[in-house]
Amino acid sequence: TSKARRSVAPKAPSDIELVEASFGRFASKGDTLVERFYARLFEANPGVRAMFPDDLGAQKKKLLGALVLAVQNLRKPEVLAPVLLELGRKHLAYGASTAHFAPVGAALIGALGDVDRRFDASTRDAWARTYGVVANIMSQGMVVS
């Protein structure tokens, strides 16, 4: 886990600043964000719909909570890394695989662009790099030992 702890934060401090600023702009639109995320995910990847409960209410709250936790702790890898490793373990138990990270990332980046009017290329790239780091650490938690 020491490797994961060191690698949680995106390489460029500006990435963290862009992600935090963007997240702050749509914090009040969290419900819209998760609605757009699941709409995009299921539209582009209908096969993953069966992995989720019919009623997505609780799932949407979990996703929003995880996003808030991640963004609030980007500067605290000692807090975030263990949470992401455990989240990876949980997702493995739910039937998720590392192959799901790319479509989930695409849906998330698309949904972020839907709710943040100032989601420019720099912000999109910062979110993509940040998501890549998060997905990498979660995937470490998905390794069956």
Task: Please describe the topology of this protein.
Elements: H1 2-7, H2 13-26, H3 30-44, H4 57-72, H5 77-93, H6 101-115, H7 121-141
Helix pairs in contact: 2-7, 3-4, 3-6, 5-7, 6-7
Describe it:
The protein has about 140 residues and is mainly α. Helix content is about 70%, strand content about 0%. The protein has helices at about 1-5, 15-25, 30-45, 55-70, 75-95, 100-115, 120-140. α2 (about 15-25) crosses α7, α3 (about 30-45) packs across α6 (about 100-115) and α5 crosses α7. The longest helix has 21 residues, at about 120-140. About 25% of the residues are buried. The model has no long low-confidence stretch (mean pLDDT about 90).
Number of helices: 7
Ends distance? 14 Å
The number of E-state strands comes to 0
Q: Rough shape?
A: globular
Mean pLDDT score: 90
Question: How much beta, percentage-wise?
Answer: under 5%
Main β-sheet, in a few words? none
Oligomer: single chain
Q: Calculate Rg over CA atoms.
A: 14 Å
Helix content class: over 70%
Order of helices and strands: HHHHHHH
Short key terms for the protein model shown above:
72% helix, 7 helices
Summarize the structure.
This protein is mainly alpha-helical. It has helices spanning 2-7, 13-26, 30-44, 57-72, 77-93, 101-115, 121-141.
